[in-house]
Amino acid sequence: MSGSTAVAVDALLAGKARAYTRPGTSSAIDKRPLAGAVHIGELGLEGDEQGDLRVHGGVDKAVHQYAFDHYTAWRQDLGVLPLLQAPGAFGENISTRGLTEADVCLGDRFVLGDALLEVSQSRQPCWKLNDRFGVADMARRVQATGRTGWYYRVLRPGTARAGDVLVLTERPHPGWTLQRLGALLYQRVLDPIQLEPALALPLVPSHRKLIERRLEQGAVEDWSRRVDGPSGL
Asked: Which residues have C-beta within 8 Å of that of residue 119, sequence separation ≥ 6?
């Protein structure tokens, strides 16, 4: 992948927070395509919401991209679900083809319309995917396959629309694809030789803390609440 790499955006999507599947929960995972020009601000696409601001949204999770390329594999794994016929199944804001976690590096900067986006982190899938797909271990599957999608922070707000081209303009960490970083996070890696180099990256605080804790404690964190959901609901 080079600085001239560009892919067309098939859809820009947003959703409103609504009561979700379990008592006391809400979600805006049900994203729908937007027509016309869309403003992309510091906190994401205009009109987009998050159901739980403790773990979603914010400047480091302003915009979520998911590769439509992965939908074929998911249909092979899960069958022909209605959700998998069009972009938006994973709560993404940007849907493209030709760009996956194997092609994108942490810190990559992309221009979309006149907005400037920076890859901030991989997605850590949560239990809301289980309920959306009706598959009890969907979040664990997303994590295990590495088909997670990724988040951007917005360095320069601007306007874009479906059909615009997402253009890579800068790659400060070419050795650190999201596939490589995701393998460290999700394949229960404890090897200091693999973990320590990642601390030189501009990690979001939660990912830095995760790696530092593994190095200090020699143990992997408990993912059950995030991927299986709150107990007793």
From this structure: 104, 105, 106, 107, 108, 109, 110, 150, 151, 152, 178
3-state SS of the chain: helix, strand, coil percent to 5?
A: 30, 25, 45
CA distance 82 to 88: 11
Under 8 Å between Cβ of 6 and 20: no
Specify which residues 47 forms β-bridges with.
Answer: none
> Residue 40, Cα to own-chain centre: how many angstroms?
17
Integer Cα distance of 72 and 30 in angstroms: 20
> Contact 69/97 with Cβ under 8 angstroms?
yes
- C-alpha closest to that of 153 among 9, 42, 31: 42
DSSP, res 5: -
Is-contact 123 64, C-beta < 8 A? yes
Confidence tier at 52 by pLDDT (50, 70, 90): low
The Cα 107–Cα 122 span in angstroms is 11
DSSP-derived 3-state class of residue 9: strand
Find the mean pLDDT for residues 6-28. Answer: 92
Q: Please indicate whether residue 125 or residue 2 has the higher confidence score (pLDDT).
A: 125
